[in-house]
Amino acid sequence: MDFSTPRPKRSLFSSFLAAILTTVTANASPQESSLELIAHSPDRVTASIARYHSGDTDTLKLVNLIIKTVDETIIDTPVPSVLNKPITPPSGDMHDYMSMSPYWWPNPDTEDGLPYIRIDGKVNPLRYKGDNVAMDKMVEGSWHCALAYAYTGEERYAAKAAAFLRTWFLDPKTKMNPNLTYSQWRLGWTELRASALLDTQRLLRMIDASPLILASDSWTEEDHANLKSWFGQYTTWYHTSEQGIEQSQAYNNHGSYYDTQLIFFSAFSDRTDLAIATLENYNQGRIAPQLDEQGGQPHELKRTRPFHYCNFNANAWVLAAQIGDNLGIDVWDAQSEKNLGLTLKWLEPYATQQKEWIKPTPIKDRDYLVYRYLITQAADHYPYLDKAAILTQLPDFDYSTDAQLRYIIECELAR
Fold first, then answer.
1. What value, to the nearest 5°, has the Cα angle with vertex 400 and ends 395 and 402?
2. 217-236 pLDDT, tens per residue?
3. Are 27 and 57 in contact (CB under 8 A)?
4. Cα distances (angstroms) measured from residue 179 to each of 45, 94, 132, 201, 242
5. How far is C-alpha 226 from the chain's CA centre?
6. d(CA 55, CA 25)
7. Residues of the chain with pLDDT > 70: what percent?
8. CA atoms within 13 A on the CB side of 261
9. Best CA proximity match to 51, nearest among 33, 26, 23
10. Hey, which residues does 185 pair with through a beta bridge?
11. What mean pLDDT is predicted for residues 317-331?
12. Roughly what angle, to the nearest 10 degrees, separates helices 9-23 and 42-54?
């Protein structure tokens, strides 16, 4: 996509939609798309838009749920920013992102409760007072509004998505500084945390919002370029800060998400060489070392919510594999002895309740749905994963509520 050439914005969406409907039908294979996406297949997103306009039942149900969610809970709500938090970062700059570490609590052995101590799996309510809550709202708001625009062409959705992005990343009065220095803060401690970098894994869900609204009047090529610039600055901090260097050496889901985020952010900010270099070592450098011979994840199985963390880690791998498809790097690596498919196969009998779960913490309803999403994304790459059979044994998605919307969207965009 050539950002140097001005385009007539009012006719662009109509032209794009006309091209989709003339090249892709609801029953056709995905065709080559002109969309410039990072996290999703441009061809499959184009095909999904075509299915909606052709009346595909499942796609219609999804889009109706997106529109209902946006109209009822997003379109008229205030746009969040890092300035809204009730706590001030140690720097004194409210533009610095700050969140509280989730599993840290007052110390029962000291009079003032400091320094905080870690209780794995038990979330301190202070976690819900930081910028992570506002970031979640920005991510969901911008992504859902961008999708509503991509499917319907209604400018009001693009305008709201643009407002979310512009406020959080671009407006000098409200934007976040491109670092996570004070993320996952612990009261009573002074050292910075490498695990803080996990907080921006939520941005992976919205990185394609910008290209999806480029056909609108509300978001310009200059906006898009400026957003890339912000992510370029963040990538430099992420990749070179002491916190980033330490996190890059993590051996569990922290290391997986370190690499996956680095791939996404560098690809989006046009540092494709860094993204590809990270992808080329992903399976052997990140996935294989975390698996035992059967496909279990020893580090995640030690946690208080082991099935959740096995899913969470595998999600990072799936995301990396999907962007690898866009950049021509095979992270699925079906020929290797240890790969993403092996861990999904190991989890299968527990997810389908053919075996009793091996840990005292039970598998929750949401865990089954996340596993369903992972199977939908990955199973076609591994012949030993019978997707149809597995899916019939798992709870189906509920289209009547937005609680599962994230997973329904990602499965639709992978069809």
1. 90
2. 999 999 999 999 999 999 99
3. no
4. 31, 12, 13, 13, 12
5. 21
6. 10
7. 92
8. 27
9. 26
10. 100
11. 96
12. 80
pLDDT in tens, 32-85: 567 889 999 999 999 999 999 999 999 999 999 999 999 999 999 999 999 999
Distance between CA atoms of residues 226 and 178, nearest Å:
13
Query: Environment class of residue 181 by beta-carbon count within 10 Å: exposed (0-12), middle (13-18) or buried (19+)?
Result: buried
User: pTM for the complete prediction?
Assistant: 0.91
Q: Which helix (H) or strand (E) holds 104?
A: strand 104-105
115 has pLDDT over 50: yes
Beta pairing partners, 98: 182
On the 0-12 / 13-18 / 19+ scale of CB atoms within 10 A, 25 is middle
| Separation of alpha carbons 78 and 163, rounded Å | 10
Nearest CA to 283 out of 322, 321, 254 is that of 321
In the structure encoding, which two tokens stand for residue 248, read together? 């890059």
Beta-bridge partners for 104: 118
pLDDT at 15: 56
- For every residue of 146-157, DSSP letters joined together read HHHHHHH--HHH
The letter for the amino acid at 38 is I
Contact 165, 142 (CB under 8 A): yes
Cβ count near 177 (within 10 Å):
19
By three-state DSSP, how is residue 255 classified?
A: helix
Taking the CA atoms of the chain, what radius of gyration do you get in angstroms?
21
Tokens coding 63: 């889009």
Q: Which of 381, 270, 363 is nearest to 317 (CA)?
A: 381
| Amino acid letter, residue 211 | P
- Using the predicted structure, report yes or no on whether residue 138 has a pLDDT greater than 70: yes
Do residues 269 and 228 lie in contact, with contact meaning Cβ atoms separated by under 8 Å? yes
Q: Look-up: residue for tokens 């992903």?
A: 282
Structural contact between residues 287 and 259, judged by C-beta atoms closer than 8 angstroms: no
What's the pLDDT score for residue 190? 86
CA 374/CA 351 separation, integer angstroms: 11
The answer to whether residues 305 and 121 touch, using CB atoms and an 8 Å cutoff, is: yes
Sequence-separated (6 or more) residues with CB below 8 Å from residue 78:
none
